[in-house]
Amino acid sequence: MPARPIRANFSSICIAFLCAMTVVLVPLGFSRTAFAQNPSITGTWNLVWEGARDNYTGTMNVTKKINDKLFTAKLNLIMSGGASLTEDASITVTGNEVRIECSNPSRKPYNADRFYVVHDGNRMEGYSLDTAGQRGRKIVFNKR
Predict the structure, then answer these.
(1) Which helix (H) or strand (E) holds 70?
(2) pTM for the full model?
(3) Would the pLDDT of 85 be above 60?
């Protein structure tokens, strides 16, 4: 009979510990949802893009976290012919789905880009759709 009270006390101690950790960590911003939505969005990403009209390489520098779901970035693109282009971007994260909406392209006439990608660790992959409705085949971002 003495084993039962020890097991019951151990269970009570574990539950009390978990409750205490929840009370301490959640107000500090350590929630499971926040980690799942953007574990590593900020930083520099290399990109390779098969666009609707050209192929591109370059980088995306995610510079500012506005909240758990919204970030700002700058894209530096190099076209297959060697010409360069920059765009500002607003990034919205919903779970593992990431929407990157660009604006202010540095070259005229150039339609601002939008990217719809799935985030998985240090990689994001998806497609593009510019503001003129032209869909690119594939874009891959790899975190540096």
Answers:
(1) strand 70-79
(2) 0.73
(3) yes
